[in-house]
Amino acid sequence: MYTSKQVGRIIIAKKLSLSALFLVATSLFFLGDHLDPGRDRIVTTAISAILLLGLTILIHRSTRFHEYWEVAFAFFCGSFGLFLAWSTPSAPLSNFGGSSDTPQGVAVLKFFELLPVALTIVILTRIVQGSLAPIYVQKGNIKSGIGLGLLLGIIILVIYLAISWSSIDPNKMVSALPWLITFAILNAFFEELLIRGLFLRRYSTLLGRLWAVVLSTLCYGLFFLGVQAAVGPIPFSALVVILPLGLIYAFIMQNSDSIWGSVSLHAAIDLIFLIGVFASV
User: Fold this and answer.
1) Residue 280 backbone phi and psi in degrees, to 5
2) Helix or strand or coil: residue 280?
3) Within 165-235, where are the H helices?
4) CA distance 167 to 207
5) Cα→Cα distances 262→26, 148, 238, 253, 265, Å
6) What confidence score (pLDDT) does residue 279 get?
7) I want to staple 36 with a disulfide (CB 3.0 to 4.6 A). Which of 40, 72, 134, 270 is the partner?
8) Does residue 51 carry a pLDDT above 60?
9) Residue 280 has what pLDDT?
């Protein structure tokens, strides 16, 4: 028989082991997808999706490891969605009157990246699990979710504008704002669905709520390392706030039982960055 202290140590050891395994899997998932350019990236993601599908089926049929099948399924959904996003040619930006370095262009590009990923995750989750609750794409508690997310987002945005107004061109900001808001919302939903929506509830089931929040935040940091590998260095000042923001996003999503509150706050934070890029003097 184990003593209560020994049982506690076993539980902690199990959580640490699972967390390490999930972090390794996440690093391969995010960093691998971004590090392979062009067609190599498509092939890598296709192979990953096939392997993850097989792993999901094996774990689901296993008596010993059955409780982990939802995590494997989440990785499969994300990998398959990214494969579709990168292998399906999007309409030329010229059809929409934009280029990749304009507010309109980045918004259009983000839409075509989001669409196959979101549809894949939502449709597969609905078919396989019969509900969208596992990925938080539900109404949830609107008051504590969207209310808190919007309130914090508006406060942070107003403070930023007050501090940085001298470096912002009002005409540029007004003309670009509709596209910047569009991109911010699309990108916020993309990242929240791919990072926290897919994994937060699954990690909570296996590790507990608090541990899942911390783990998902570390995974959020890995995601940005992947982005950095793809687009170039991210300013250190931005990296410093990524982990605290990840904790806040996860807290809002978990406590409102919905993705929309964290999307609201995330979009406001993205909008601050976009204004600095496209509306600076």
Assistant:
1) -75, 155
2) strand
3) 170-191, 198-207, 209-231
4) 45
5) 21, 9, 18, 6, 5
6) 86
7) 40
8) yes
9) 85
DSSP of 144-174 = HHHHHHHHHHHHHHHHHHHHHGGGB-HHHHH
Tokens of 217: 């935040």
Residues contacting residue 66 through CB under 8 Å, at least 6 positions apart: 59, 60
| Structure letter (DSSP) for residue 101 | T
Alpha-carbon gap, residue 47 to 37, rounded angstroms: 15
Q: How many CB atoms lie within 10 A of CB 240?
A: 9
Q: pLDDT (tens digit, 9 = 90+) per residue, 160-197?
A: 999 998 999 999 999 999 999 999 999 999 999 999 99
Residues 56-92 have pLDDT tens digits of 999 999 998 899 999 999 999 998 998 888 887 666 6
Q: What is the dihedral of CA 76, 77, 81, 83, to 10 degrees?
A: 10
- Amino acid occupying residue 261: G
| pTM to 2 decimal places | 0.90
SS3 19: helix
How confident is the model over 247-273, as a mean pLDDT?
A: 94
Q: What percent of the chain has pLDDT over 90?
A: 50
- Overall number of domains in the chain: 1
**Whole domain around residue 36: which residue ranges?**
4-278
DSSP string, 104-121: HHHHHHHHHHHHHHHHHH
Query: Residues 121-162: pLDDT tens digits?
Result: 999 999 999 999 999 998 888 778 888 899 999 999 999 999
The partner residues of 280 in beta bridges, in order of sequence, read: 168
Cα–Cα distance between 39 and 195 in angstroms, integer? 24
Tens digits of residue pLDDT in 259-269: 999 999 999 99
- What is d(CA 53, CA 178) in angstroms, rounded to the nearest whole number? 39
